[in-house]
Amino acid sequence: MSALNSFVSAGRRMVTMDSVRWAFRCSSWTPSPTEWLFAARCVQREEKERIGQFVFAKDAKLAMAGRLLLRKLIWERMGISWDQIRFERTAKGKPFLANPPSSTEVCRWSFNVSHQGDFAVLAAEQGWQVGVDVMKTTMPGSSSVSEFFRIMRRQFTEHEWMTVRAAGPEWTQLDLFHRHWALKESFIKAMGTGLGFDLQRVEFHISPAQMQEGQVYRGTRMLLDCEEEEDWVFEECLLDKHHHVAVALGRPSSNAADDDRPAFPHELPSTFTVLSFSDLVSGASPLTEEDASYWESFRKKQEAPTRQSTSPQ
């Protein structure tokens, strides 16, 4: 079997489920020319051009993985053929399926992607608003932790800063800061409100104080404009010891009486499934002709500057 065929050989589509949680570790992916060119052929032309504009190879890989995760979801869980998938963006930049089928079940899907640090992640749910954010804990690039917190002071409430500063050593405080940030971003992305939202309007009361890898938590509560929100649930997990993921699940608005509105699922979904590149392009089909210059452009991209992502000794 040729290298190219090995990327696209995928058996049957998986049975549709209500929840999807996928992650792809971009830092472990060193694409060959064949892989990169095939990936580029499997996304929309404008997406390919946007990805090509990144200065750093790391950012290009994260963006490519994010687009492939979305297309894989639509093909595998919604049953739309790869070449019929068409994404557009809202005025706030959130991607949406431009040509959804008429099926009610398919239209109930909500999905979101995030990429930062070493991972691209996707969360999708049927019947709920979904936002996801991944954050890697790293030391600030050009300032001390205390100076970084001073710059970010207006983004958190007094309660949230008290929680962060009570965490102990600076590294633990920084880790908790990124956990809060992921929660806020997941909510904003689920709402689709964009960058203009005042982050102090939402306040998180996290639980548990510490998380373990391989587990999913739903203990964190949110206050919106000082009122506890009962229509939102937040899932949290660690992809590894440095990467926090938050998933916001919002109950859709309804004119029906409260008793008639759908309840949140009681069972916790499994933690994120980490996909290989073969998994990522399973079922993919090329949309454009191969462009050898696209590999040359990627090969010449710079390596992103690295930040310390281990606790200082």
What can you see in these coordinates?
The chain starts with a helix and ends in a 14-residue tail after the last helix. The strands form 4 sheets. The protein has a 4-stranded mixed sheet with strand order 4-5-1-12. The longest helix is centred in the first third of the chain and has 22 residues, at 57-78. The protein has 313 residues and is α+β, with helices and mostly antiparallel strands. The model is unreliable at 1-17 (pLDDT under 50). It has helices at 3-8, 33-41, 45-52, 57-78, 104-107, 145-151, 158-165, 170-191, 277-280, 292-299; strands spanning 19-25, 87-89, 95-97, 109-116, 119-126, 129-136, 202-205, 221-224, 227-228, 232-240, 243-250, 273-275. Helix 7 (158-165) runs antiparallel to helix 8 (170-191). It has 10 helices and 12 strands. A hairpin with a 5-residue loop joins strand 2 (87-89) and strand 3 (95-97).
Summarize the structure.
With 313 residues, the protein is an alpha+beta fold. The chain is 31% helix and 21% strand.
